[in-house]
Structures are given as structure tokens and as C-alpha cells.
Design goal:
399 residues; alpha/beta; Rossmann fold; 2 domains; seven-stranded mixed beta sheet; six-stranded mixed beta sheet; 37% helix; binds P-hydroxybenzoic acid
Amino acid sequence: MAVPYHRTTITRRQTLRLAAAGALGSVLPTRIAFGQTAKVRIGILLPYSGTYARLGNAITNAMELKFAELGGKLGGRDIELIKVDSEAAPPKATELTTKLINQEKVDILVGPVHSGVAMAMAKIAREEGTLTIVPNAGADQITGPLCAPNLFRTSFTNWQPGHPMGKVLLDEGKKNVVTCFWNYGAGQQSAEGFKDGFVPHGGTIVKEIGVPFPQVEFQAALTEIAALKPDAVYTFFAGGGAVKFVKDWHAAGLSGIELVGAGFLTEGVTEAQGEAAEGLRTTLHYADALDNPANLKFREAYLAKFGKEADVYAVQGYDAAELIHVGLEAVQGDTSAKADIIKAMEGAEFDSPRGPFKLSKAHNPVQNIYLRRVEKGVNTVIATAYEGLSDPAKGCKLL
Ligand code: PHB
């Protein structure tokens, strides 16, 4: 059958209609040039209000920085960002994600920060097959039992950052530890990650203290810790909650007990914490003071554009944008070529500000975890606590 195809005049809509009718398959090359006109629509679901607002803003800023560095194009196409405030509220996540996919018709989803939001978002993204990149939320399930070809993460699993801290403490003879965390998926899994690297090697968890999220009333927990007198307290708090916890800890003056944690405790907040943050040791897949060319260039560009220091959240957003770039470059912007985009993203390897970036078979970063200490408000590097740590990804069928 002859097809009325005029390369110069055919619109994208017409092309799609004809393609849908099965008329074009043998006549047209698969990647026709409609990419030059339609924008790549990226739906961003992040917290822009509440205790995690500064995390959402840092991720968004760094994505915009990366896209600007790429000349505002992905695979030859302009970019449109559709930003939605998740409020870090799991009950709102299903509706907001559905809206981005079905009403806004985004090509790619990026988000969220909160593990509870991630669980709802991932469920829908799996059903719809929408290409999704998680630039923070650490819910272990996303790259574990819920892993899927279209789900990627540029951040961490909640298990990862805390796991190496167990050995750090045991090597110093610190055997009795209290865990204290926001009592939802992320805090619980972070404490489990720590425990996993601590208890089997001789450590004892004296007490697990959960504080409801996003509550910042820590006095009862601090009183209990003072009475228990452990060698150290392992924590998971972030954003506004981390500011408050560190200040309250400092004011309580609990001498002889070391406060440690997943590095979120001192990410993007040391200025607000001031003196109270000095000397705190944490483990994380990033540190401000990492001395590699990608980090130096990134921090300088971020500071110049936004007048603020970059942090781990910014790094994760920057790398999410880079991962999208790798995927769309491989298909010259043809977002319908999903299998090819996924293949390119799976093979992505680049120099991230955190160090070498590559993904596991479950689509989660395999990365160094650094032992850091806050010095004059900067997260400095004491050592690499674990080189190339990969999440066990239990239950993931992509392995
Ligand atoms: C999470 O909910 O997964 C989460 C939130 C904030 C962080 C880290 C993890 O800093």
C-alpha cells in the first residue's frame, strides 16, 4: 500500500496516527525527526514544602544546572519540567503520580525524596511502564522486590549508608549502641542497615528509639539515651529534622556518648546547625570535600548559579539528569524507544561528583561509602569506609 508521506510537511500527530494504523512500519525509518519539535516532558515529584523542602530544592536546582550545561537539550529535543510538590506526604502520592502520567503525559518521571511516597510512585510507574528515576528515596524495595526494567535510582538504598558504620564503631571498641530514627520506612531500614554491619560482628543494639515522622520533639529520646549511656547513638534524620536533632543533642551535653549516623544528618544543614555539628562523624556516598575533578567543577558551578553550597541531594539530582541524558542521547531523543533507553541507562558509567558512577543489575548505584567528619561546617573525608558497596537487592528479579 502506498503511503502519503511527505517528509517536509507531515506533522508529529499525523505520523503517530499513521504509525498506529500500522501503515508506516516498512516505509519510514524508526527514528524520524519529530524529536526536533516536541519537548521532552519530565515530571518531577519532590517536596517543595515541609521538613524535606530543602532536599527537593537542591535536587531540582542541580537537575536544572545539568540541563543548562547540556545546552537545554536532551537527544536534540528541548526540555520541559513539570514540577509538583509531593509535600513528602505518602497519602497524596498516588494521585499526584497518576496526574503526571495520565494528564500531564510526561515522558519521564523523576522523584521522590520520601520512601513512603516512593512506594506509591513505584507501584504506578511499574503498572504504567513509565521510565522513572528516583533521585533520593532510599526504600530498599524499589531496587529489591519491586525492581523493574523502567525503575532506576541515582541515590542509595536505605541499607547502604549505614551499613559500614558498624565496622567503624567496632574497630574503636564501641560495642553498645542505641539507634534513634524517624519511625517510617527510611529510618527503620537505615537502622537495619547499620545493625546488619554491627550485630553479626559483635555489636549490641541496646535500644531502638523511633520518633514519628516528621515530628521534631526529641527530649524524651534524649532523656532515655542519657539514662542508657551507650557508647554511641546511630541516627537517621534529615533536612529540618536533622537541624533540630543535632542542636538538641548539643544542648543536652551527653558527654561520653558519640552521635553518629547516616550522613543525611549533616547534609545541606551544617550552616543551620552551626557549632553543634562540629566534629560529627557520619557515613555516606558523598562528602563536600571529595577531591575529584567532577566534584570540584560541580560545586563551583552550583555555588555560582544558586549562591549556595551543593550537597548530596544536589549530586543525586545532577546524576539523575545525566542518566536521562545518556538514555536519550542513545536514541536521539526518541522517547518511544524505551528498550534502547533502558539499555543505555543500564550501561551508563560516568564521573559523578561522588566518584565513579555505575548501576547494579537492580538499577541502584554501586558506590563508595565515605566516613566523614564535619570541620568548620564542611563534611570532610576521613576515609573510604567501604569501596564499591552494592546493595544486596534481595528479591529483585532482574538479578
Ligand atoms: C527517604 O525517605 O528515603 C529519605 C529521606 C531523606 C533522606 C534520605 C532518605 O535524607
